[in-house]
Design a protein that fits this description.
Growth Hormone, Chain: A, 3 domains, 22 helices, mainly alpha, globular
Length: 523
């Protein structure tokens, strides 16, 4: 080196890139700071995907837009992010993982500032598109850089700390977003990223500036990128617009679905035969990676679907405020904070399939408990399964991620992390849309079924009307009260069926995990 660098932290490398392109693991204070910085970047990016959701009405109102137009604040980010995410591995090989991560985080921080300063909806949506696109590489590269700079014997602990941010951030996003939109200017939903992003940039530059990964001028296929934008973009727009347009009763949704199916089908076919694929679908040929992708994707689909459903149920049918509903759901993050590091430290001593199976069984039990919802459900009934479900979260990310990446060489980590997170993200979006849509459809079914019993010839209905009259209600008031009760009961029945379906799916996944090779890594 030329001597221009200042004193380094213990454990940080001062040598230039070795010929092999690999570096000795970080140690001591350098490793501790990297363990803080990279998960913080992931937390910031995941938080940004959920924090704006509850603030859409406030933002739209302040910018003079309708609620429907305001949803583009969410959709624009999601579409751009979904398209950029799978190409992260290829970009990392061209630019270097450290350089791409620094650019991605820096631009994400800048666009966060610009989003908060936007003066109209079109400007905000534009900056959200850019923000979503530049955020694509952040999560997979945070994961890849963490794994590649950790001592091999401690990588499970690295995955544990990284995964906690992925599981906890979606819980705190709506809580924080609701608080900000109620108490301060909505711009702080985006401004909050600025100091966090600057801190991440400073630490990563300090620790990894001389630990760049090898670069290669591999060409990027224009056809592959076009198919990626077309197929994935249409799919994400279909998910975001489907509920608003009544899904396949809308011509727009049908067209988007056809474009998505055709685009993604041709994308997979093209990438599997391309000499230099943008998305490395060939990695799914590794049995453990393929099983890991299936489990993490289905698991996140079910988990995020119920994460969205529970606050909606509490607010619409139990009278909770947005802040209170968020506070009640937040305790799911208690157990992961304490258990995940332990799992990461000692999971190499057991067959990972056992831990994953236990996670799915706890998930199934909590989902089945949720299916017992009734109009009389108290706070403890809501809190206890939420806290226990944290055990399942702690046993979920670390073993599955470790199992999936166990057999992959270091030079494939960035590609694998991009594909892993890309498919997981898409399925998470499917889960949120599918859970709320199924919930509303089942409410309609139960509403019709229950209303059929409210006729003058039903003894129970006559007794109920008489009881309401004795309480001083008029016939019109009694009918209104019963209609509200039927709607509420229909939503509760619908939610119960969604939770039962999720419980059954987790039980099936507990069997699927055993198709992977043994996850025991004894030393």
């Amino acid at each position: 080196m030329n001597g221009t660098h200042t004193k380094r932290l213990p454990g940080a490398s001062s040598a230039g890139p070795p010929q092999s392109g690999t570096y000795p693991p970080l140690q001591g204070a350098a490793l501790a700071l990297l363990t803080f910085a990279l998960p913080l970047a992931t937390f910031m990016e995941v938080l940004d995907t959920t924090i704006a959701n509850v603030a859409v009405p406030t933002i739209a109102g302040n910018l003079g837009a309708s609620g429907t137009q305001g949803t583009w604040i969410i959709t624009s980010y999601a579409v751009a992010n979904a398209v950029a995410l799978p190409a992260s591995g290829r970009l990392a090989r061209r630019l270097g993982e450290v350089r791409l991560f620094m650019w991605s985080t820096g631009l994400f921080t800048l666009t966060s500032l610009l989003c908060g300063l936007a003066e109209d909806l079109s400007m905000l949506v534009f900056f959200r598109v850019v923000q979503g696109a530049v955020a694509g590489p952040m999560m997979p590269l945070a994961q890849s850089l963490l794994l590649n700079n950790y001592p091999p014997e401690k990588r499970n602990s690295a995955i544990a700390l990284w995964s906690m941010t992925v599981s906890v951030a979606p819980i705190f996003g709506p809580v924080l977003g609701g608080y900000i939109s109620d108490n301060v200017h909505w711009g702080w939903i985006f401004f909050i990223n600025v100091p966090l992003g600057c801190l991440v940039l400073f630490l990563v530059h300090l620790l990894l500036r001389d630990r760049e990964t090898p670069r290669s001028r591999i060409p990027m296929s224009a056809i592959g990128i076009a198919l990626l934008v077309l197929g994935v973009g249409a799919f994400q727009m279909m998910l975001d617009r489907g509920k608003e347009l009544d899904w396949f009763n809308s011509t727009e949704i049908v067209v988007l679905a056809v474009i998505a199916v055709v685009g993604i089908t041709f994308l997979v076919a093209w990438e599997l035969t391309d000499k230099h694929p943008t998305v490395s679908f060939s990695l799914l040929g590794s049995r453990n990676f393929c099983v890991g992708v299936i489990l993490i994707s289905l698991g996140m689909m079910l988990y995020l679907g119920t994460v969205v459903l529970l606050p909606l149920l509490l607010q619409t049918q139990f009278g909770y405020t947005a802040a209170l509903a968020g506070s009640v759901t937040a305790p799911i993050g208690i157990f992961p904070v304490f258990i995940a590091p332990i799992v990461g430290k000692y999971s190499h001593r057991v067959d990972l399939r056992i831990l994953i199976t236990l996670s799915f069984l706890v998930f199934a039990g909590c989902m089945q408990a949720r299916a017992l919802f009734s109009p009389q459900a108290d706070l403890n009934f809501i809190l206890i399964p939420q806290v226990i479900q944290g055990i399942a979260i702690a046993l979920f990310f670390v073993p599955i991620t470790t199992l999936a990446f166990a057999d992959l060489p270091p030079q494939r980590m960035a590609d694998a992390a991009s594909l892993f997170n890309f498919i997981r993200t898409l399925f998470g979006a499917v889960g949120a849309s599918a859970a709320t849509t199924l919930w509303e459809r089942r409410e309609s079914f139960h509403h019709s079924r229950l209303t059929a019993h409210l006729d003058p010839y039903n003894p129970l209905a006559r007794d109920t009307f008489e009881t309401l009259r004795s309480l001083g209600m008029t016939d019109e008031q009694s009918a209104g009260w019963l209609a509200g009760a039927v709607t509420r009961q229909g939503f509760i029945f619908g939610a119960a069926e969604v939770y039962q379906l999720c419980a059954a799916a987790f039980l099936i996944m507990a069997v699927v995990v055993w198709t992977a090779k043994s996850g025991a890594h004894r030393r």
